[in-house]
Amino acid sequence: MTAELVRGQNHPLSQARLEVRISAGTPVVAAATFGDADGRIGGADRVAHPGGPVLPGLEVSRQAAADHRLAVDLDAVPDAVHRVSVLLALPAPGRTGPVRFGAVAAPFVAVTGLDGSEIASFTMTGLDAETAVIALELYRRQGAWKVRAVGQGYAGGLAELLTDQGLADAHGLAASVHEAVARGRADAVPAPPPRPADGDRSRPTAAPALGPDHGDTAAQGAPGPVPSPPAYGPQTPGTPGQSPTGPQQPPPPFPGGPGPEDATLAQPPAPAPGGPVDYSHPRRQTTAPPPPPPTVPPAEPGQPARPVAGDATGWSMEERLYNQVWGMFEDLARTMAAYRSAVDFADSRLEKELDQVLSDPRSRIGGHGDAARETARERYDSLVAQARQVLDRDLTQLAAESDVVEPALPLAYARWDHPVWHDYRVPMEIPMAVRLGDLHLPEADGVRIPMLVRLPLERGLWIDSGRAPSLDGSFGDAHELRGLALEAAVAHAARLLAVHPAGEFTVHVIDPAGAGARELTPLVRSGVLATPPAAGAAGVADVLSRLTQRVDLVQMALRGGAADALPPEFDTSQHLLIVNDFPHGFDDRAVNQLRYLADEGPSVGVHLMMVADREESAEYGPLLDPLWRALLRLTPVADDHLADPWVGHAWTYEPPLVPSGSQVLQRVLTEVATARRTWGR
Amino acid sequence: MTKGQAISLQKNDGGSLTSVRMGLGWQAAPRRGLFGSRTREIDLDASAVLFADKQPVDVVFFRHLVSDDGSVRHTGDNLVGGVGQGGDDEAILVDLQRVPVHIDQIVFTVNSFTGQTFQEVQNAFCRLVDETNGQELARYTLAGGGQYTAQIMAKVHRSGAGWALTALGSPANGRTFQDLMPAILPVL
């Protein structure tokens, strides 16, 4: 488990023998100093540098390099040493190299075990005119060693840095370090010329050999093509350097918030023409501080705080809203648990007290029994009323929060009737999550919690077209239910298509008997499908074998660590297969392929959406049970079948319906289709 | 605080407390003689049992870190103790406003999960902190570690419209809170 440290954060070290790995986009000098309890260096013999690289328990490289590996044995470090600082410095100015850290990629340091397992890492962002920096320090704390991310830079270079650590002849030592580096460089094999094929990925390296940690550098260095589909981390909207003319996701409105605090504020500013190139990986979370969350106005005395959209932790508004929605979900689940527990207790107490009255011989005489019964009921009513009062207080607060959160939600989280869908543009980034519907509890009908599911999907979806005992009993017609299920599936698919950038999400449809032609019209007519819905046994077999092959191929490439080896024209998008009318048109082989896709597909970006009635596929017996279990069951009508992860209440799920008569779905799909054609996929 | 002492959890300004933290800290006692520096790790566990009318309703311990209603939260299991050097090694946060209405007592217990008796523990204490301002309301030291493996530390119970804290400090034996149930019932 790697701890990604931010500046100032520390992390315990459980082992004494470590490696400190350094990756910078340019040759740097690595050095280390031994400090006493006050952090002061006793003398030049307490500094490991290219001119004198060995100290007890520590050795640094003799030359400047883009990648360093410092072996450290903390047990061998003298007892008087309380602090080992790891320093980086740019080689002496006057050379061809960069003259300040602001002009190169953010240096990355990692503390690893001897087996290469990363213990803690730290990316030094935000450096500018500095030419030397204290990357991190290993320090003793109550007999144990810890690592702290420092990232303190010095514009005056190594000399200023060493002076700051209390070294007397800092300038002399700094000069000798630079001299040693210059000597070392002359002995080194010259850097290979940049390869023309992917020149943007090559780095000016003086060191002949890159360690096996080259992968680390690539991951945080230049944004090369990384064709592994499931490699999507948490996304931050807005990529530095993205085409300013391209379609942009409009910043969602934040009523109640202090103005449009777009998440793009978290990003470094776009590079000015001719300025330094930003080499940081666009998908990598930087340690830049997140934009401040909206400030909550101070509550009036005696009143609960007024809720504000985005009042949660996160690196972007999107993430904060996601966390806030989950917080509301948990709060509602727990406050309901408190209420139900209180009512259950009141019930059982009433029952017990009534039993007591019955068994008490005195109660048979006169009004004694009636009075006791009356008291018991009063106690019951008062407790339930108290519980209800608390519940209502919490529900009012949650409803008020929901009222400010719903309008602030971005596209992927918003209901279909949200205005953000009206000026829909194809987004540039995959969102964190997508809304699959609403959740509520019977006692709190007024509070609807958006059901947000992380992207990429962890499991496929199963839209149940079966005749479940529905809540209001109004849907008796199996045929109608099947139509509704497919309609819901189309709406889910449309939303998934709409929230992905053009060409990053591909939908396939299998409709063996053509039974769903009417409901599938929006997808077919707008031209968002890669191929028309597959019909007949041959069509089913063809689509399934193509997707199975794809899963095999990507899996092989990932397992072999050769994601680069996939053909360059290989489309790395996520795939969704809608299967209507299962099991019609499926033979045993096709069913097995389907199960394989359900099991293996999600990890390589191939997802299933089954529109099916479980009863109808019963002829395959228990064979299909794992398939159903692998999918998330949704219903086309309100149904209470989803459990929350904390208490396990049965939540009523409502599918996200497109308002009847609204053209929003068609308009969105047309936009998606246009974008797909423009992108040529 | 001493055993049996009760304090009311009203603030000086008359307002009642909203959020309190029950902190538990301990260190393993060093052994004398040869290899004395080898301290064995002692795993003490703090638990909180929520009672409604003397019936256990919910328990917060290292396997169930948040009560179903969300009012009582355990900050997580500490397996060795002594980390904070006087700070809390394990803590249980109680949001008094959110405690369900039928819960009238919350009992805090400490168990030695690894089986050492309190003779091998030193500097063990439990304290109650006002979580809103970090002020310590009460501190209770597990003095005179005896031949037992658990202790029922204190209870927070409803008193009038607010809450009160009573120090209990009654010794017991058991590995987890389940073993303590018979010992807890008499102190309710």
From TrEMBL, chain A:
Signal peptide: none annotated. Residues 184-311 are annotated as: Disordered. InterPro entries: P-loop_NTPase, Stress/Tellurium_Resist, TerD. Residues 233-246 have a biased composition (Low complexity). Gene3D superfamilies: P-loop containing nucleotide triphosphate hydrolases, sav2460 like domains. Residues 64-164 form the TerD domain. Residues 247-258, 288-301 have a biased composition (Pro residues). Pfam families: TerD. Belongs to the CAPAB/TerDEXZ family. This is Export associated protein. It comes from Streptomyces fumanus. The lineage of its organism: Bacteria, Bacillati, Actinomycetota, Actinomycetes, Kitasatosporales.
